[in-house]
Amino acid sequence: MKNSEKQIVFKGHSYIPGYSYNSKNQKVNDVIIQKYITEIRADEFGRHYGYKKITAVLNRRYLLIINKKKVYRLMNVMGILNDRTERVRRYKRICKNHKIAGSNQLWEMDTKYVFIAGTKEVAYLTSIIDVFDRSIVAYDFSLSANASAAERVTLTALYNRNIKNYTNGLTLRTDNGSQFIAHKFEKLCIKEKIVHERIPVHSPNYNAHIESYHRYLQDECLAGKMFLTFDEAKNTIERYVDGYNTKRVHSSIDYRTPEEFYNLKNCNFKNKLVISV
């Protein structure tokens, strides 16, 4: 237990003092810490954070020396702990044929349906996630889920990562959707020297990272919204993707944002991380 949470014995009972310390060795009252927690959860992404991610933000943004057990206790007192917030989504890693130790080694791509109520149309969001740094490298939002959309988002991802013509063994994993098995898309992968890996039928766990992202997108961005126009949906998704990459912290990448983790080229944690998928 850290100094800020040192237990004090009083008449045979122990309790945790109502304060913690910051990096300047100044006492910060629990009431102020609860105010910080409220500020974090007021954010578009922070409202979905559990106590572990809240702890990481308190450490980094507010320079508090505080552990997750105390944050859990404070959030419990505030009445903001619930099953939905603290549930951990787990996927079995069935596929173990890859060990990745850096970005642009393994991407996953999938398509999600988005209903436009105002026009009674179905739009299609095709996204690519980098399994190592968890970034949404590129996405395409259109009214057609065809090979052209898959081609567009793949090319955009290559340009965004500055690896067009220099893929260096990149593997792109998809399901067996018609847009991904089309000759046009396969031709692009061959041309760009991308290893296109298709998962077994009815085995979404092989594509767990992009599936997980689409769950977050549904819960945090789309749920409860009724879009009247295609552009309204497009703008909403654009804001979410930007925030997901630049503001939303992930426990799997040292409680950092995807953008921050990707840019830490010399981070010791990153250099030691090896993911088997």
Please give the radius of gyration in angstroms.
22 Å
- The number of domains is 2
What is the helix content? Answer: 25-40%
Task: Give the CATH H-level superfamily of the largest domain.
Answer: Ribonuclease H-like superfamily/Ribonuclease H
Mean pLDDT: 83
User: Helices and strands, in N-to-C order?
Assistant: EEEEHHEHHEEEEHEHHEHHHHE
Number of helices: 11
* CATH-level-2 architecture of the largest domain: 2-Layer Sandwich
Largest sheet: 5 strands, mixed
Q: Which class best fits the helix and strand makeup?
A: alpha+beta
- Rounded to the nearest angstrom, the distance between the terminal CA atoms is 34 Å
Which residues form runs of ≥5 with pLDDT under 50? 1-15, 83-96
Which class of the largest domain in CATH terms?
Answer: Alpha Beta
Shape: globular
Number of strands: 12
The name of the CATH topology of the largest domain is Nucleotidyltransferase, domain 5
| Strand coverage percent | 15-25%
Strand order of the largest sheet: 9-8-7-10-11
